[in-house]
């Protein structure tokens, strides 16, 4: 499925479960997400990350409502518990199976996202390894002067910000020199077109969620 269709579908489903109180729907989404990731053969370490990451916020939400809530607090506590896990697993289906380059290029070509924004974000992602290397250089230079900079030291953040500002200026000049003018029409070496079956599958999944929601006995 196209990356842009995938993120739209994930956002729509996540938005819907934000306004529903169906425990069974949340559990069904979690199970479907796990099956999907297993079919995609996602790294098991990433799967474990999705399991353990929401435990603390999910338990905190559940316990606060279960022990201190009012009204239908027992049901709502389990709604929030399953909803947080559903959010994580829906997001995992997108992030673990989607390439950021394909997503941004698809949004640019099919949903009119500005080219300057797309390639600026791509450049920022490509700068991440250089930022990590720059932090190592800053800490090494400080150690040569007899200073030890920890990860929470403000000097690291200040110097890294100054370096990033310099890079951003160079990046802006490079984009202008390559013709990335706001609103200008550009051609593409790799044209991304969304097949009709992508829309059909997304519509079927969304309708299936609605049917399951209204037919579920546990709300």
Task: Give an overview of the whole structure.
With 219 residues, the chain is mainly alpha-helical. It has nine helices and no strands. The longest helix is centred in the middle third of the chain and has 30 residues. The chain is flat and about 60 Å long. It starts with a helix and ends with a helix. The relative contact order is 0.14. The mean pLDDT is 84.
Q: How are helices and strands ordered from N to C?
A: HHHHHHHHH
Proportion of residues in extended strands: under 5%
Let me know the average pLDDT: 84
Estimated structural class: mainly alpha
Helix content: over 70%
**Biggest sheet features:** none
Number-wise, the strands total: 0
Low-confidence stretches: none
Q: End-to-end distance, in Å?
A: 31 Å
Number of helices: 9
Shape call: flat
Instruction: Supply Rg.
Output: 23 Å
């Amino acid at each position: 499925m196209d990356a842009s269709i995938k993120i739209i579908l994930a956002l729509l489903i996540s938005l819907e479960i934000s306004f529903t109180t169906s425990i069974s729907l949340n559990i069904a989404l979690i199970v479907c997400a796990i099956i999907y990731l297993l079919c995609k053969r996602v790294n098991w370490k990433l799967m474990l990350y999705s399991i353990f990451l929401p435990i603390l916020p999910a338990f905190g939400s559940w316990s606060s409502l279960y022990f201190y809530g009012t009204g239908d607090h027992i049901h709502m506590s389990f709604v929030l518990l399953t909803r947080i896990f559903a959010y994580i697993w829906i997001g995992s289906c997108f992030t673990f199976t989607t390439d950021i380059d394909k997503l941004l290029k698809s949004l640019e070509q099919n949903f009119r996202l500005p080219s300057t924004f797309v390639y600026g974000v791509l450049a920022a992602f490509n700068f991440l390894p250089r930022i990590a290397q720059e932090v190592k250089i800053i800490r090494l230079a400080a150690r040569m002067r007899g200073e030890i900079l920890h990860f929470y030291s403000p000097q690291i953040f200040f110097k890294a910000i100054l370096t990033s500002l310099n890079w951003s200026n160079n990046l802006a000049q490079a984009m202008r020199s390559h013709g990335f003018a706001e609103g200008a029409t550009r051609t593409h070496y790799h044209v991304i077109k969304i097949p009709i079956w992508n829309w059909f599958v997304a519509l079927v999944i969304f309708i299936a969620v609605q049917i399951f929601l209204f037919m579920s006995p546990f709300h």
